Amino acid sequence: MTRAVLTLNAGSSSLKVALFPEAGDLPLATGLADKVGPDGVLHLKDAAGGTIAAAGDLTTHAGAMEAAIASFRAQWPDLDLLAIGHRVVHGGADRAAPVTVDDAVLTDLERLAPFAPLHQPHNLAGIRAAIDAFPGVPQVACFDTAFHRSHPFVNDTFALPRALYDEGVRRYGFHGLSYDYIAGELARTAPHLAEGRVVVAHLGNGASMCGIQNGRSVASTMGFSALDGLPMGTRSGQVDPGVLLYLMDQKGMSAGQISDLLYKQSGLLGLSGLSNDMRTLEAANTPHAAEAIDYFVFRCQREVGALAAALGGIDALVFCGGIGENSRQVRARICERLGWMGIEIDHAKNAGNDRVISSDLARTSVLVIPTNEELVIARAARAAVGLTKEAA
Ligand code: AMP
């Protein structure tokens, strides 16, 4: 019997899947359904990177999920699916851990959809589809917000009238599954750092930073939505709210148009006029591409400083995410102006993508740790069905 747990990460037009054995860190298979809809495609790979034949109805998320499972069953005819773990963007103000989904939980998570209208409905549709397709298999929701529930009030609030805080207008923070993984890896491999003050830079198409002290999130650059903080592939990062008033009052833009501008047309794409992709910008030889990277680097430097202030100092800086794990140039440039906080990288180690890239004499360690959100979800799913002692 191949006993396994499935992880699902449902986006607006994509569905990431991974099949994990009942123990161990390596998935049996991973896959991505992209452009879910009339032009949907599904790619599945086994642990050795070999292609798993996949076909089916890719016009909906439910269809894509069933197509992936059918392909896994063809590959492992004795597959016994023990639990399904889901990435859910928003768990609300109180959920600090994964939860096994029942009707009451689902209703409560639906209530949070207005706080994350672009993501939460897709995540919940994924859960509903999984319940329909696999009745009786436990469904476990893992939240991007959960890791940040330890923030003190000053990092949890805006200076708006109190009633708005009370109805949920707060700084939730996101990318929590990634930070959870990094905190766990630090505890496992560098416990002296894990007990200290760490800034983690999750720099990918979505980008944020988190200040962690003794394994607990103290502050994050993302706030009420996944728009705040650092510039991202197509998202603006922090903007003066006065700009939004200007766009509404003077340019007559609707909420939908502003949402589109902030989420889809800004960030690296908006500044460069070329691409949301860091690799493309690094290879491009245009002044606007260079300025987009300059701005990204500058905001990263600023936010490391701000989070170090929130932590009362810094013992380690950790890079993860597609840019953080791969772009030597961006890592080196961010660290260039952080010497005043004891950060100094060893350029040979940085060029080699080593795990520790700080120089031997530097006061502050700098690490590169590939993140693994899927594994965090798989562990929670295992815990929910009693395979491990982790909470779910
Ligand atoms: P993610 O969302 O974590 O998958 O990260 C995607 C981002 O990582 C994109 O901007 C990619 O261009 C960037 N990226 C991936 N590999 C590299 C690389 N070798 N050099 C620079 N950027 C990279």
The small molecules bound here are: adenosine monophosphate
Using the alpha-carbon principal axes, give the shape: globular
Oligomeric status:
single chain
Query: Which architecture name of the largest domain does CATH use?
Result: 2-Layer Sandwich
Number of domains: 2
Largest sheet: 8 strands, mixed
Structure, described:
With 392 residues, the chain is α/β, with parallel strands linked by helices. It has 2 domains: 2-143, Nucleotidyltransferase, domain 5; 191-368, ATPase, nucleotide binding domain (Nucleotidyltransferase, domain 5), CATH 3.30.420. The protein has 15 helices and 13 strands. It has helices spanning 61-75, 103-111, 120-133, 162-166, 176-189, 191-194, 241-249, 255-264, 267-272, 278-283, 287-311, 321-326, 328-336, 347-351, 373-384; strands spanning 2-10, 15-21, 29-34, 41-46, 51-52, 79-88, 99-100, 139-143, 197-203, 207-213, 216-220, 316-320, 365-368. An 8-stranded mixed sheet has the order 5-4-3-2-1-6-8-7, with helices on both faces. A 5-stranded mixed sheet has the order 11-10-9-12-13, with helices on both faces. The longest helix has 25 residues, at 287-311. The model has no long low-confidence stretch (mean pLDDT 95). Bound molecules: adenosine monophosphate (AMP). Adenosine monophosphate binds at residues 204-205, 233, 277-279, 282, 321-323, 326-327.
